[in-house]
Amino acid sequence: MNIITSSDSNFYHCLKGLASSVRKHYGKQVIVYDVGLTEAQREEIDAKAFSIDIDVDFRGYAKFLKHETIETSAIKTTHKPFCVKHYFDNFDEPMLYVDADCYFTEKVEESGFDLGVTLRRKNRIDLTNPWIGILNAGVIFFNTRSDEFLDTWTKACLNDNTTDQKELSEILSETIDWKEYNKIYDWHGLKVKVFNAVQYNDVRLKGGKILHFKGRRHEKEIYEQLIEAHEHGENAYELFNQLTDRKTKPWYRSLLNIFGK
């Protein structure tokens, strides 16, 4: 299995962490699609880098309604299906696509399905909101190539006001009801396994197999402190709360523990 990602210079500090974790647990280089690294960064990073033509504006933000009346936005990242297509045009091995701000705490290799996605935590799922309410597209397993799925995802990502995650959720929702984790569903003959994000896309940094330093967690100064805390066995999520002045009073932490937040 290969690990692939994409990165520009703004995420280089995260890319270094990801590359280090891939080298540690897989004994190989991460494959990175260069969407804005400097020449010096390409030469320094422990990675196999590719540059490809991407026929879509993937750097901007898409706007959508949250809670029916509140307009918000999400970064498009609609380049992902183009990277996946290029990978399977050049490699035969299964692969795991992760965002550059992910970090492996152990070797992850799963089999018995074709496509694997990570469903949000039960208390965060909102099936009426494919933008941010169903999947977190920061971790996607590809054990085989599916031209039907890739063509559908790529075409959908050509829409100017969308995100890779929103389109992925809507495409798979055609046949998947998202009721259960660790279940294999069928999408037009494609075996799709739904993984629990707590273990495979851990944004709370609480012992998952793949940590995801999403949002402010990937800001350089914060990220470096969180990585150091993790490597020393400390509570990285509590440190994140402290660094960002989030609620960290003892009574609040007790509530989080009671309700499993």
Give a summary of the structure in a few sentences.
The protein is of the alpha/beta class and 261 residues long. It has 9 helices and 12 strands.
Q: Please, could you describe this protein's structure?
A:
- With 261 residues, the chain is α/β, with parallel strands linked by helices.
- It folds into two domains: 2-218, Alpha-Beta Complex (Spore Coat Polysaccharide Biosynthesis Protein SpsA, Chain A); 220-261, no CATH class.
- Helix content is 33%, strand content 24%.
- It is built from nine helices and twelve strands.
- It has an eight-stranded mixed sheet, with helices on both faces. Strands 4-5 form a two-stranded antiparallel ribbon.
- Helix 3 packs antiparallel against helix 4 and helix 7 (220-231) runs antiparallel to helix 8 (236-243).
- Mean pLDDT is 91; it is low at 255-261.
* Helical fraction: 25-40%
Mean pLDDT across residues: 91
In CATH, the topology of the largest domain is named Spore Coat Polysaccharide Biosynthesis Protein SpsA, Chain A
- State the order of secondary-structure elements, H for helix, E for strand: EHEHEEEHEEEEHHEEHEHHH
Low-pLDDT runs of 5+ residues are 255-261
What is the CATH architecture descriptor of the largest domain?
Alpha-Beta Complex
Number of domains: 2
Secondary-structure content class: alpha/beta
